[in-house]
Structure formats: C-alpha cells, structure tokens
Specification:
GO molecular function (chains A, B): kinase activity
Number of domains of chain A: 3
Strand order of the largest sheet of chain A: 6-5-4-7-10
CATH topology of the largest domain in chain A: Nucleotidyltransferase, domain 5
Largest sheet of chain A: 5 strands, mixed
CATH architecture of the largest domain in chain A: 2-Layer Sandwich
Family (chains A, B): Belongs to the ROK (NagC/XylR) family.
InterPro entries (chains A, B): ATPase_NBD, ROK, WH-like_DNA-bd_sf, WH_DNA-bd_sf
Helix content of chain A: 40-55%
Pfam families (chains A, B): ROK
Structural class of chain A: alpha/beta
Largest interface: A-B, 67 and 67 residues
Distance between the termini of chain A: 35 Å
Oligomer: homodimer
Protein name (chains A, B): NBD/HSP70 family sugar kinase
Chain lengths: 401, 401
C-alpha cells in the first residue's frame, strides 16, 4: 500500500491527463481544459508549455469563437508528428496502420490471409514489411512512440507470448519479441487479445464512451470477449480474462475447438451459424457467408430463419449469463456477431427477459460495434499510446534519442 | 477526467492510507510505515500526530526490540475507542457485532431465524435491539463511525434497497433506510450483498490476502458470488454484479428459484445436494444437513457419494466457466459450498482440467474460506469502515459532533 504521490509524480500525472484529454477529445481550448481538469489557469499553461516544447501538442487560435473578448487558445495533439504503429493479426487478414496522436489513421496497409495453420514468419514478415514501407514515407521530424498488435487468441500479458489461437497448432509463440526484433525500431511491441482491444476501443472511442461497465463480444471464427469493469479492461491474473466464448452454455452440445462441449463459441460461432443454415462444407466461410445467411432470413428463407433463431437462443443465454455475472450497462456485438445479433435480436432479447435477473438487466443497452472492423486496430493503437499517455516526456525523450 | 490532487487531497489520502495500514496490518512501527508507504520520516510523524490527536491511533513503545538504539514508536489503532456496527442478515440467522478499528470483534449478538417469508420489521427490529444493547455497554469516550449490513440477496448500491433475495416475496424493500431510522445513531447504513462482502473480507483479511483477482463462491440456500478484479470488488453498473449462482450451466436442468432452468444454484445449491442424496422433505435443511451428506459419503455411503459426484460436476463446470471469463488467481469456497467442495474436490478439479482453458487455469488455487461463517460479518465491518479510511478526520469530526 503506497501513499500519496510526490510533486514530480503529480506533474507527470497531470501532463499525461492533459495529453489524454486532447488525444481522446480532440482540440480543446485552454479554458475548457481548466474547467474539465479542475486545475487553475497557470497550471494548465505550464503543462501545455511543457507538452508543446516536447512536440506533443501545439497551441493555436480557434477558427471562430462567436464570442466577444480574447479567445482561449486551442490545444491540439501533434497528430502528424507523433504516431504509433497498430497491427492487427486477424483470422482472415493482416493489417498495419500508422496512427497519429489523437487517433487519426495516417496510413494503412492490409493483406488477406488464408485460413489455416501459420508460422510466426507468415505473420511477422508481412506486417514488418508494411511498417517499413509506411516508416519510409514519414518526414524526418516524426517520431514513433509505440507499437502494439492485436491477436485473435490468448496472449500472456507479461511476455506477449501467444498461448492459444484459432488455427494455431503450436503453443507458446513469442509474437511480441519476434515482432520487435523484425521491426528494429528500438521499441518493444505490446500484444493484446483482439476482443480485449476492441472492447477498449469501443470504450474510449466507440459506442461505449461513458460506460464504465460494458461487455464486448467479438465474433470471428470463434467468439472472443473483452470486459470493461469500472472503467478498466478486465485482464485477470495473467491477461487471459474475458474468454467468454469458452463459457459452456450447453454441456450436451456441440464440440468446441478447445475440446469442451457446448461452449458459447461452439453454439453461436461462425461454424454453428453456417451448419445450422445447411451451408457448411460446400459454401464459403467467413463474414460474407454469415451475412448471406442473415440476408436470406430477411428475404424469408425458412432454413436461414431457423438457424438464426437457434443460434440467437444460445447467444441470448450466453449474454444472460454474462449480465448476471457482470451487471453491465452495455453489451456490444462486434465482428460477425454484429450480423448474427441483427438477425436474431428478438431471440436474444427474449432469452435475456427470461434468464437474466431483472435488477441485473435493468437499464441494459444492447448495441452493435460503432468502429466495425477497425475496432481491433483502434484498440491496438490505444494500447500503443498507453505509455506516452502515462509519462509523456519520458517516452518522448527515449523515442527521440 | 480529473487531474492530479491538491495538497489537501494528498494529506487526506495519506492519512487514510496510514490508517488503513494499521487497520489491516495491526500495530506497525513508524520505521516500517516510513519504508512501506514510501514517505519520509517527518511526513509519517506529522500524519501520525494528526491521527493521534483525532483519537484514531496511539503511539507507544514496542514491548521489546532485541536491537540496540532507540526503538521506533509503534502506531496502533484505537480499537477500543473507534468502532462500527456490522450486521449480517443471513437466511438462518441475524448477527450484530461491534467491531473495533483494526478489525477486532468487541461484542456480538446473534439470533436464529426461521426460514420463510419475512417482513422488514422482523429483520430490523432484532438487529436494532442488539445494536442498542451493545451501544449501552460502551464507555462515553467511544465513537461509532459507521454501520453496514450484509444481506443474502440483491441490493442496489445507490440506495441499499433489496431487489431480490431468498424467501423474499416482496420487492424493493428499503433495508438501509429503515435500519438507519431504527438505529437512530445519526449515521447512514450501507447494505451490501453477503457474498460480495465475504469476498471483500477474504481479500482483505482471509485466505485471499495478496490476490488481486479472486472469485468467492458462497453457498447458503442459494449460491452467491463475489468477484475481486484487480484488487477491487466487482460491483457492476448498479451493484448487482457477481450473481454467479444464476449463471445457467444446464439449460435442460432443474428449475431455479429465479424462474430459469439449470442455474448453478439449482444444480449445486443446498436443495440439489439434499435431493440428490435422497434427503429432501423428511430431513433437516441447512448447513448441518449438507455436512451430514458429506460425512455419509466419507463413511462410504454410495448414494451420498453419487450425490456429491453429481453436484461436484456442475460446481466444477460453473467454476471452469468463471475461470475462463475471469482468469482468477484463486477461487474460494465458502458457506455450505465449503463442505460441498471438500466432499467433491476430485470432481471439481477434473471438470476444471477438461473445461477451463489451460492458460486461464494455470497457477489457479482452489481454497476454502479462512473466515468461515464470519466472512460476511467481517466484510460488513470493512464496508462500515470504508468511509473513515477514505477520510479519517472528516468522518471523525462528524461522528463526534
């Protein structure tokens, strides 16, 4: 149990808080920062001066104020100068983006991935190549302050080693270490679970802004989850928290990739949808295939409707369980679960009405992802920015050296 | 997003932190406080002087140091002078205790409750009577700084109103308000869910000390839960988080009191144990009845063994689900689930081995409650002390006035 912070710690905290303000909220006037942060004007001025000197923000006159008197200067993040690399290792694609402070995607590269077993090189090679291409195009005065990757599987928080994932036949793959070596930017790489990062993204920049307790459900080949508890991402003891896809909802049910029977993923994942709709094997896989089922149901296809009803029933039961356990304010459906939810909302809601405790579901909002397919990438960018927001000057000094 | 604290806020924070140290850790030397809190000696001296003047701690020479030189003064909580009332509204009993700063139970009263529907008066009347009896026995210089109650059901965080509970046929019972009125101590009453408070107790003073992520499962008539996430109690949006007993594990299973089929509570609660053992109806209920089943199984009774095996299987599945969702460091079995777990540990562990993801259960410890039947009461006391630990001088000034 440590006690209160020193003057230097307070300054560092305040610098981070101010930078986070403009990073998440966009250009903000000094007057607004003063009132929102509860600090006096001279402190805000001093903090802004420090951040400006470090090249993290700049101050300028607002375009128009519409008010009389001297306008308050606007503090804006140096989006073009300070950036991170955000990487997304999805089941069907690899994405790399250069994201400026403030969250602007400045540049991006994407490659389609064939599903199936992969080697570490097949991931790291293309992503490092993309990053190098984008890095070459930057001006000399830009500075990269972090790198983070989203991975669709289990990643240890301490070491960025992959412990499990779809189509991953080897275990203990050192993704973070190998990525950092290959990028050779002199920066460590942080790796997070894709659904966790998407949850973080929706919480900070998406449909969940302002919600302190939310659950994000991500449908890919499997079902992943990210849970925000009291404003913080649920990590658990070693970073594997939120694997809601492996909550067993039907113990006599379908075999899951993890070896158990009746996991939420086995009953409401992509394969369950396509098989229930009689579209496995001969048909295509992936999001488009799921969307086809939902479209067919919309057009009155009885088999597709029955499939969505069945899958929606299990999805609803899973959500009800999570609502009882977490009492969240919002549940967000992302990835292919967005389609499934839109095609089975009535079923999901009716399960919730039966199986969630009334006080636990009171006021609950069910929503679809606002950031769509970019949620994981946006989350990876936020993870990459975490260090500079925690200690702006220290990170910048290191990056510039 | 607020910025760093003011000098006054830091002082308040430090006073609370120091008081929490001696409240949880017992008498501590100034030298130890200096090193543990990361503050310098003169700050510790000043803080201790403030807390001593307020009558919250006192300083004394240690009995023996075994070392040469001037011994460091020991700071100890004023356990006999500063106290709270902790109340426990269990299914089978009502308990009231006067608990001194530092966690010492100074006095307690207990009454057996008959199961069945209850009126608010049947709870509030006896508890207020107990509190008055204990209050009359205190010396004039003592001061009560808080009151909190544990209730075996759902309680809204904001208002202390009971929304659901076993044997509760009315809803929206204003327990906190009515209790405060009847006690007439001029203090508000905080009410929390019993399993949540037991989790808090095991986390701060029991088997879970030092664990930042743990799940406490409490068996009573039903099954309740309390979850500690990154050192904080999971409350959820409105305080109903942790209702793990209503996670559905067997959707074609037994009818639960909540109206759903196959909740963990329905499959592994008291009634499930007794019915599986052929002991419902004619036999006694409660903890003793469950213990009889476990004892019988120990002595080789095949029916009792089969019952525990069946119940342990569902309990294991429920725990596996929670392990996948939370990746906790520890799961604690309390109340009658302590007995059930001890009688079915092999079954629970084998379910975990099959149904929990290997990285999520890696390093997991399964434990029984260290505080036993007093866990809820100890948790209620901690809830009652929360205010004075957050702002020692303010609370004391109010209580003394």
């Amino acid at each position: 149990m440590r006690a209160g912070p020193s003057q230097e710690e307070i300054r560092r905290h305040n610098l981070g808080a101010l930078l986070r303000h403009v990073h998440l909220g966009g250009p903000t006037s000094r007057a607004e920062l003063t009132s929102r942060m509860g600090l006096n004007r001279s402190t805000i001025m001093a903090l802004t001066a420090d951040l400006t000197a470090a090249g993290l923000v700049r101050e300028e006159l607002p375009r128009e104020t519409g008010r009389a008197g001297r306008p308050s200067l606007v503090v804006r993040p140096e989006s073009a100068r300070v950036y991170v690399f955000a990487l997304d290792v999805g089941v069907d694609r690899l994405v790399a983006a250069r994201v400026g402070l403030g969250g602007t995607i400045l540049d991006r590269r994407e490659a389609v991935r064939r599903r199936g077993p992969f080697s570490l090189e097949e991931i790291v090679g293309p992503l490092a190549g993309f990053a190098r291409q984008m890095h070459r195009k930057t001006r000399p005065d830009t500075v990269c302050v972090g790198v983070a990757a989203a991975f669709s599987g289990g990643v240890g928080r301490a070491d960025g080693v992959i412990r499990f994932g779809p189509n991953m036949h080897s275990v203990d793959v050192p993704l973070a270490e190998e990525m950092a070596r290959k990028l050779a930017l002199g920066l460590p790489v942080t790796v997070g679970n894709d659904a966790n990062l998407a949850a973080l993204a929706e919480h900070t920049r998406g449909v969940g802004v302002g919600c302190r307790d939310l659950i994000y459900l991500h449908g890919d080949v499997g079902i992943g989850g990210g849970v925000i508890v009291n404003g913080q991402l649920l990590g658990g003891h070693a970073g594997f928290g939120g694997e809601v896809g492996h909550m067993i909802v039907n113990p006599k049910g379908r075999l899951c990739g993890c070896g158990s029977l009746g996991c939420l993923e086995a009953e409401a994942g992509e394969r369950a949808v396509l098989e229930a709709a009689g579209r496995s094997g001969t048909h295509q896989l992936g999001r488009d295939a799921v969307r086809d089922v939902v479209d067919a149901a919309d057009r009155g296809d009885i088999v597709a409707q029955a499939a969505l009803s069945r899958v929606g029933d299990w999805l609803g039961l899973g959500v009800a369980n999570l609502v009882n356990v977490f009492n969240p304010e919002m549940v967000i459906f992302g990835g292919m679960l967005r389609e499934v939810y839109l095609g089975s909302a009535a079923q999901v809601r009716s399960r919730l009405a039966v199986d969630a405790l009334p006080p636990s579901r009171d006021g609950l909002r069910l929503r679809t992802s606002a950031l769509g397919d970019d949620a994981t990438l946006v989350g990876a960018a936020e993870l990459a920015f975490a260090q500079v927001l925690a200690d702006p000057l220290e990170v910048l000094a290191r990056a510039g050296s």
